[in-house]
Design brief:
heterodimer; A: alpha/beta; six-stranded mixed β-sheet; four-stranded antiparallel β-sheet; 9 helices; B: mainly alpha; ABC transporter involved in vitamin B12 uptake, BtuC; globular
C-alpha cells in the first residue's frame, strides 16, 4: 500500500471579507516532492500556504494531511511535521536570533517551560545550516532583510520538520544567498527526503528548483505540471494577463526573459 | 538561552532589593523605629510592645499589601502587553481596572466589608467587573474569531472611559453619607487594617501569577504574531483566553483592596523589559519583584511627605512613573536611531 500524500487538497474554497481568494483548487503534494507555487500578485499563493498550515480553515472542500483531515490534526503535532518560513514577521518585542530560532523548538517540548541542552544543540545545528550561527546574539530587528530571512529558515529547521512551507524565501536574498538556499533545500530534499512547498515570484528559480509548478491566477488553479510545461508563453500569458517572453536553452530548459514590452 | 538558573539568580537579586525596600517601609512612619528594632520585631524579639504593635500590626500588613499589589499589577501589565503585543497595554489602558473598580464600588455599596467572607466577596465582585470589562473589550475587538490588536487597545480605552463614567454616575446618585470610604478608595490607597485583606490578595495574586507564568513560553511565541504562533503549534486563542482571565483576576483582587493605582502595570514591565529582555520566563518574575519594590517605596514616600497625613499612593506612582516613562522612551529612541 502506498502511503497517503502529504497534502491532499480537494475542491477547496476560501475567502475573507466576501472576496474569494481561492476557488475549487484540487491537488496533491507527494512525499519528498518539491512543489513551487507561482502566479501573479494576490492570486492566492500565500492563502494556500495558510490553508496548508491550518492558519485558515477552508469554507468548502477538504484538506487531508497524510490521510487525516487537517482539522483533526493537533496544532502541535502539525508543527512537529510542517514548518513554515513566513515572508516577513513583525516582532512585537526585540529578541535575539538564537532566541528566535529556539522558538522553533516549542512543538518539540511545549509541556516544558524551558528549553534543554538538546534544544540548544538542534537550534545551533539549524543556525549553522541556514548560515546564521555567528549572528546568535544579534537582535533580529537589527538584521538586514536577507539575514532575517535566513534566521526564519533556521527557526523552521529547528522544528525538525519533514515538510517545509516557504513564502517567497528568496525575496530578500542576493544571488549568492539564493544559491545557498536553493542548495540547502535540495540537500534537505535529497538527504532527508524533506517535502518542500514554496511560493516564488522568480519563475526561473522556481522552475529550476521545483519538480512541479502550481500556477495560480485569480484564486484558480491554472496548471499543475513540470516546469517545462508551465513555463510556456501561452500558459503564462493567460495567467499573468500580459505577453511573456520565454526562450528555450539548447537543453530544452525554458528561461523566462520577462514581459514583452 | 534563558535557563532556570538565570531566572533563579535574577529573582534572588530582585528579592534582595524588595527586602531592603520592605525594611525601609517598616521603619518609616510617625513613630520613628530604627532598622534594628524593626528586624527585632519581625523575629519576635521586639524591645517594646509599642514597637511590636506598630511594626507587626500596622506597618507590616501595609508593606505586604503594597508588595503584593505592586507585584501583581506588574505581572498583569506584562501579561496584557504580551497578549496585545503592545508595550502600551496595561490593566488601566484596556479598561479592565475600570471594570474592577465598578465591581468593587458596587460591592462596597452592598456592604461587602469587614468579615473574611465579605472581603472575598468584594474581591469576587471586582474580579467579575474586571472579567466583564475584559470580555466586553474582547467581544468589541473580535471579528470573525480573530483578535486584531489595534482594535483591542481602542476597545479597551473606550470601555475604560465608559466604566469610569458609570462609577461617576453611581457615586453621584448615592447618598453622600453612604459613600463612606469609597471616595478615598477611588484615589488609590494602601491604608488597610489587619491581615485579612493581605491574605485574600495573596491567594488571588499567587493564583493569577501562576496561571500567567505557566503560559510564559507560549506568550513569547505570540510576540511573533498570531500566524507564526499558530504555525509553531501555539493554540493562540486558548492561551489568550487563559491569560486574559488570569490578568483580570490579578486586577480584580488588587483593585478591590487598593483602588485603582496607575502606572505600575505600565512602566514596570516596560522598564524591566529594557533591562532583561522580552523573554516572559525571565520578565514576569523580575517584573513581579520590581513592581513590588516600586509600590513599597512609593507607599513609603506617600506616608513620608505630608506627615502626619498621607498622599494617595497613586499620586506618587504617577509622579514617579510619568517622567520615568518619558525618560525610557527618549533613551530607547536615541539608541534606535544611530
Amino acid at each position: 500500500m502506498t502511503p497517503p500524500p502529504v497534502f491532499a487538497v480537494r475542491e477547496v474554497e476560501f475567502g475573507y471579507g466576501g472576496a474569494f481568494r481561492l476557488t475549487g483548487a484540487s491537488f496533491e503534494v507527494a512525499e519528498g516532492e518539491i512543489l513551487g507555487l507561482v502566479g501573479p500578485n494576490s492570486s492566492g499563493k500565500t492563502t494556500l500556504l495558510r490553508l496548508l498550515s491550518k492558519v485558515h480553515v477552508p469554507d468548502r472542500g477538504e484538506i487531508r494531511f497524510r490521510g487525516t483531515p487537517i482539522g483533526a490534526v493537533g496544532r502541535l503535532a502539525l508543527a512537529r511535521d510542517v514548518a513554515v518560513v513566513p515572508q516577513e514577521e513583525q516582532l512585537a518585542f526585540s529578541v535575539s536570533v538564537e532566541e528566535l530560532v529556539l522558538m522553533g523548538r516549542f512543538p518539540r517540548g511545549a509541556g516544558r517551560l524551558f528549553e534543554g541542552p538538546e534544544d540548544l544543540a538542534r537550534a545551533r545545528e539549524a543556525m549553522a545550516l541556514a548560515g546564521v550561527l555567528d549572528l546568535g546574539n544579534h537582535p533580529v530587528d537589527a538584521l538586514a532583510g536577507g539575514e532575517r530571512q535566513r534566521a526564519l529558515i533556521a527557526r523552521a529547521l529547528a522544528q525538525e520538520p519533514r515538510v517545509l512551507l516557504l513564502d517567497e524565501p528568496t525575496s530578500h536574498l542576493d544571488l549568492l544567498h539564493q544559491r545557498h538556499l536553493v542548495g540547502l533545500l535540495r540537500r534537505l530534499n535529497r538527504e532527508r527526503g524533506m517535502t518542500v512547498v514554496f511560493v516564488s515570484h522568480d519563475l526561473n528559480l522556481a522552475g529550476e528548483l521545483a519538480d512541479r509548478l502550481l500556477l495560480l491566477s485569480d484564486g484558480r488553479l491554472v496548471r499543475l505540471a513540470p516546469p517545462r510545461e508551465v513555463l510556456d508563453e501561452a500558459v503564462l500569458e493567460e495567467a499573468y494577463g500580459c505577453p511573456v517572453w520565454v526562450e528555450r536553452l539548447a537543453s530544452g530548459r525554458p528561461v523566462v526573459l520577462g514581459v514583452r514590452l | 538561552m534563558i535557563s532556570r538558573r538565570r531566572v533563579g539568580a535574577a529573582t534572588v537579586v530582585v528579592a534582595g532589593g524588595l527586602a531592603v525596600a520592605g525594611l525601609l517601609g517598616l521603619a518609616t512612619g510617625p513613630a520613628p523605629i530604627g532598622a534594628g528594632d524593626v528586624a527585632a520585631a519581625l523575629v519576635g524579639r521586639a524591645r517594646s510592645d509599642l514597637a511590636a504593635t506598630v511594626v507587626l500590626e500596622l506597618r507590616l500588613p501595609r508593606v505586604l499589601l503594597a508588595a503584593l499589589a505592586g507585584g501583581g499589577l506588574a505581572v498583569a501589565g506584562a501579561a496584557f502587553q504580551a497578549l496585545t503585543r503592545n508595550p502600551l497595554a496595561d490593566p488601566a489602558v484596556l479598561g479592565v481596572a475600570g471594570g474592577a473598580a465598578l465591581g468593587a464600588v458596587l460591592g462596597h455599596l452592598w456592604g461587602l466589608e469587614g468579615s473574611l467572607a465579605a472581603t472575598v466577596g468584594l474581591s469576587a465582585a471586582a474580579f467579575a467587573g474586571a472579567l466583564i470589562a475584559a470580555t466586553t473589550v474582547y467581544l468589541i475587538a473580535t471579528s470573525g474569531g480573530w483578535l486584531p490588536v489595534q482594535t483591542l487597545l481602542l476597545a479597551g480605552v473606550i470601555t475604560g472611559l465608559f466604566f469610569s463614567a458609570v462609577i461617576t454616575l453611581v457615586v453621584s446618585l448615592v447618598d453622600f453619607a453612604q459613600l463612606g470610604g469609597i471616595l478615598h478608595w477611588l484615589m488609590g490607597s494602601l491604608g488597610i487594617v489587619g491581615y485579612r485583606p493581605v491574605a485574600v490578595i495573596a491567594v488571588g495574586t499567587a493564583a493569577g501569577s501562576a496561571m500567567v507564568y505557566a503560559q510564559a513560553r507560549a506568550l513569547n511565541l505570540l510576540a511573533l504574531g498570531e500566524e507564526s504562533a499558530l504555525q509553531l503549534g501555539v493554540e493562540a486563542e486558548r492561551v489568550k483566553r487563559v491569560v486574559f482571565v488570569a490578568a483580570s483576576l490579578l486586577t480584580g483582587v488588587i483593585v478591590a483592596q487598593t483602588g485603582p493605582i496607575g502606572f505600575v502595570g505600565l512602566i514596570v514591565p516596560h522598564g524591566v523589559r529594557l533591562a532583561v529582555g522580552a523573554d516572559n520566563r525571565l520578565l514576569l518574575p523580575v517584573a513581579a519583584g520590581a513592581g513590588a519594590t516600586f509600590l513599597v517605596l512609593a507607599d513609603t514616600l506617600a506616608r513620608l511627605v505630608v506627615q502626619p497625613a498621607e498622599l494617595p499612593v497613586g499620586v506618587v506612582t504617577a509622579f514617579c512613573g510619568a517622567p520615568f516613562f518619558v525618560y525610557l522612551m527618549r533613551t530607547r529612541l536615541r539608541r534606535r536611531t544611530p
